[in-house]
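Hi support team,

I submitted a single chain yesterday and got back a structure, but I'm not sure I'm reading the token output correctly. Could someone confirm the output below corresponds to the sequence I sent? I've pasted both exactly as they appear in my results page.

Thanks,
R.
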Amino acid sequence: MYLPLLTSTLALSSLTSAWPASLTPRALPLVQSNELRRVLLRSNLLAKSQILEGFAYATPERNRVFGGPGHNATVNYLYDQVAALGGYYNIEFQPFVETYSAGNASVNVAGADQDAQLFTYSPSGKFTEPLVAVANFGCNATDYPAPLTGRIALISRGSCPFGLKSALAGAAGADAAIIYDNVDQESLAGTLGAPPRPEGPYVPTAGITLARGTALLNSINGGASVVADLEVFSIMENRTT
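Hi R., thanks for writing in. Yes, this is the structure output for that exact sequence:
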């Protein structure tokens, strides 16, 4: 295995290397393939992965989400590990800002918990309002019946991004949206995508299963007035990572 005689590049999460114009080529020792294979043991890889796991478990949320303490501990660890190679790499931190989103969602209908999940980048909100079925997949403004003021839009997954459905529901006057899955699996969760969208702002949005969504849709189509209690708690903040 051969590495360039110029400084090698490493990019690990927020940790990156750079080639300043002031650097000059250095005659560095080559990495020998057989020697490298000797240290790439399963036990070593497992031990290192357990270190990263430890960074996650040391946080209240037990994760390494970007910009959080587990993530920062990981970046610092990687930096120190590469720096310990004796100057083989030129490394530096290159921070950037990204929007972070987390939270939870709940939907109850007639006292029955719908096991709802949060769509990241959804705003917070709490509403007790009738559900209105949206036509097709809710990917066009014409799919949304008028008026939706004081209503929660019930939308099927499919054909377009979740964020478009949420934004179009808001543009049609809905206070919130529930997106149900189009395949039989656990409760639907995902991301609306970082705002803004040209169609308008998002409304509080939660996801439920195909079975639950179909049951609600059948009740609405059967003429019943279906009222949902929807609550979304969301945190959105810019984090430097």
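A quick pointer for reading it: Helices lie at 33-39, 42-57, 69-83, 162-171, 210-221. Let us know if anything else looks off.

Best,
Support desk
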